[in-house]
Write a structure and sequence with these properties.
Jelly Rolls, 2 domains, 17-stranded mixed beta sheet, 34% strand
Length: 267
């Protein structure tokens, strides 16, 4: 009889230990399943992007407007809108094809392209990263001719069906790392200088020798960067392509957070 009671007591204690743990695991599995379902059900209006995650504080202003507004979850952004994130902030934009763009703290960017796919024609999305950190997960649902570009003052990264990130620093140093697929990194488009404003009458100098015409050169370059490769540009313009350690990269909080978010994306 004593043995039965001891066994019964152990069984009871075991039940009390297992049941709460099992309940927690079931609850966690339900939450993850529900979140995945909710993520897949996100609907984005044509030619726009929606804020699907916001931690911290960020501001945006509409095209042709000077007023900055507080950015909130579910805010719709359009082509021409400008966004800046503040300290300890992360945001995520989701496009109509379920591609996502994420931006870290102290980042500013301009949405340069935002066209949804129509019929057999793929869509296009592009941002001009003025400063800060970008992470992109281009959906495999996107059509083959879809375009996805991230432009900075020193380089442009064009992709299709790729996971990658771009850092643009204050000293004009640039870094992009590719985790899946490949990207095409090239020189930024040449911007024609704006004409100077002419003031009132100015004294005209005397005759002088005029030099002959000089050829103005503009370097064009393109690099294909594949999975587990990085492309960097130093402040002095030195460019370099090489492999990087995924193990070391995963130690960065920014990369770890994006990897966890990627698990929730319906690709």
């Amino acid at each position: 009889m004593k043995k039965f009671r001891i066994y019964d007591l152990r069984f009871t204690i075991l039940n009390f230990n297992i049941l709460p743990l099992a309940s927690c695991l079931l609850l966690l599995a339900f939450c993850l399943s529900f979140y995945n379902f909710a993520y897949a059900k996100i609907e984005v209006k044509t030619d726009s992007a929606v804020i699907t995650f916001l931690e911290g504080n960020a501001e945006y202003k509409k095209k042709d407007d000077v007023k900055w507004n507080a950015l909130k979850k579910d805010t719709l952004l359009k082509e021409g809108d400008e966004v800046k994130t503040l300290e300890k902030t992360k945001i995520e934009l989701t496009l109509s094809d379920k591609s996502v763009m994420r931006f870290a703290s102290n980042t500013s960017f301009l949405i340069t392209q935002l066209k949804s796919a129509k019929g057999d024609k793929g869509g296009s999305a592009g941002v001009k990263l003025l400063l800060g950190k970008f992470y992109g997960n281009v959906s495999k649902m996107a059509k083959k001719d879809s375009e996805f570009k991230v432009e900075t003052k020193v380089a442009v990264a064009g992709v299709r069906g790729t996971i990658y990130r771009v850092d643009m620093e204050k000293d004009d140093s640039y870094l992009t790392r590719v985790y899946e697929g490949k990207i095409e990194v090239s020189n930024p488009p040449y911007e024609i200088p704006k004409p100077q404003v002419v003031g009132g009458p100015q004294p005209v100098p005397g005759p002088s020798r005029i030099e002959g015409p000089k050829q103005v050169t503009f370097e064009e370059w393109v690099e294909i960067v594949g999975a587990l490769q990085q492309y960097s540009i130093a402040p002095d313009g030195t460019r370099k392509k090489e492999k990087f350690s995924l193990e070391e990269d995963m130690k960065l909080d920014w990369v770890k957070w994006n990897t966890e978010r990627d698990k929730l994306v319906e690709r």
